[in-house]
Structure formats: C-alpha cells, structure tokens
Write a structure and sequence with these properties.
Rossmann fold; binds zinc ion; Lysozyme-like; 39% helix
C-alpha cells in the first residue's frame, strides 16, 4: 500500500537546521480536536506557527504535508525539535471507520519517514509519542496520542507493531528485483548474460538441481526464463525452444 502525500506547505515557515543536519526519528501526535481535518489544522497553523507547527497532518481523507522535513518544526519541545524529529499530527474523530482509515495512513507515513532515512523502528528512540518526548525531556506535559488511540481501542504498543509491519513491508518491497534472468542450466550462461546485459545487467539465477526456481528469482517483478519449461511466473518472458538450438534462436530473436 502506498498513499499519496499532498504537499501544501505553509509559506514563510522558518528554515532552521536540525542539530545533526537531518531528522533522526519521528514524533507521533494527535490533535486533541475531535472532528478536525488536515486542511482545517493547516489553516489554523498557518497563522499560529510561531507558537507551534508540525510537518504533517493526517485525517481520514489524506496525508497533508505542511512543512519541509529538511528543517525542524516546533512540535514537541526544544530538545526533540532540534535533535531532529519529523512530526506528524493525527486528526481526531469519534467515528470508528474514519479512525481506521486515518490510522492506516498515519502508521504508513511514520514508517515511510523512518524508512526514507533507514532509521529502523525503535520504540522510544526513533519512533516516539509526544508522551514519550514529554516524559524524557520534560519540556512539555502533552501525553498525546495515547488517550486518543485508547479511545479507539489501540495502545501505543499496537502502533509500534503496525509501524514496524509497514516498515518491514517497505524493506521487502525494495529488495524485490525488477527483472531477473533465470537459466535452465549453467550451460545457458552466455545467452543469459546477453539477456541480462540488455536489461541493465540484472541479476542472473540458475535453476536448482531439481529445476525449481530460486526464491529471489521467483519474487522478481519480471522473470526472463532462458531455456527449460515455464516457471508459471505471473510476468514471465519465456525464451526457450525444444532443444538448445531452439533456445538460442529464441534468445537471438529477443536480443533482436
Ligand atoms: Zn503532541
């Protein structure tokens, strides 16, 4: 699942650098304002940012980015803001279905922000609630989003698990090859190397001794099969003939 991030930056926000030059984690907030919307919060923030502002608002309709994550925001106290936390506010609703839609985008966004910088999901370190920030640095007394999550039957531990699941899915997705070449035997190597070269020198695999397909080849988005029978891969390009001459002809035709 991928959600669009609607960029609607508030003009005139300060451009202050994080202490280390980039954000080191994320802070999860809730707005404490039942029935609000991302647009409504943005409008409010556009006139009150001198007091406080965050980078994102999420409601049940969208993810709205209002501040550049390249610069710090004023969302969680001086230490966290300056150490460098990208900060996300969850708009609040009493409607269970709307909550679940917003919560799915919220946890996805928290994971995405962490994954973009490969920060991992470390509870209380890279992924912090505003409550954790308050308890750690004692610069504010806010305890969001804990009570709001609880009002919809979620705990902070649930959120951490959900963000971790999203993060792992992003990692998994990134490890999937776009294209792989699968050889029937190593004797097909030279033909396979030409096919791989045509596809940006993509990975080449050889079928296992029982002719089964290596796991990473099977997961590739497109699998070009050189020699042997179909793998039944959903996006297979089958370059094979009745014998090695037939396969060579199929490869030659593919290479054009
Ligand atoms: Zn907060």
């Amino acid at each position: 699942m991928i959600y669009p991030i609607i960029m609607n930056l508030i003009p005139g926000l300060p451009k202050e650098a994080y202490d280390t030059g980039h954000y080191v984690g994320v802070v999860a907030h809730a707005t404490a304002n039942n029935g609000d919307s991302a647009d409504g919060e943005r409008n409010y923030e556009s006139t009150t940012w001198q007091n406080a502002f965050v980078h994102f608002f999420v409601d049940d309709q969208k993810i709205e980015q209002v501040a550049d994550t390249a610069y710090l925001c004023y969302g969680a106290g001086h230490t966290a803001n300056h150490m460098g936390y990208a900060q996300v506010e969850l708009c609040q609703t009493t409607d269970a279905a709307k909550f679940l839609k917003a919560y799915a985008m919220y946890t996805w966004l928290l994971a995405k922000l962490l994954y973009n910088r490969k920060l991992l999901v470390v509870d209380g370190v890279t992924l912090m609630s505003h409550a954790q920030v308050s308890a750690k640095w004692k610069e504010s007394n806010h305890t969001d989003p804990i009570d709001y999550l609880a009002s919809h039957g979620k705990t902070w531990a649930n959120l951490v698990a959900d963000v971790t699941g999203q993060y792992n899915a992003m990692q998994e997705e990134d490890s999937v090859l776009n294209v792989a070449v699968l050889l029937f035997t190593k004797d097909d190597y030279w033909a396979g190397a030409d096919v791989a070269a045509k596809n940006g020198n993509c990975a080449i695999f050889v079928r296992l001794a029982d002719h089964s397909v290596p796991v990473d080849a099977a997961k590739a988005k497109q699998l070009i099969v050189v020699g042997g029978p179909t793998t039944k891969h959903p996006n297979e390009v089958l370059l094979t003939g009745n014998d090695k001459y037939g396969t060579a002809a199929a490869v030659a035709k593919y290479l054009g």
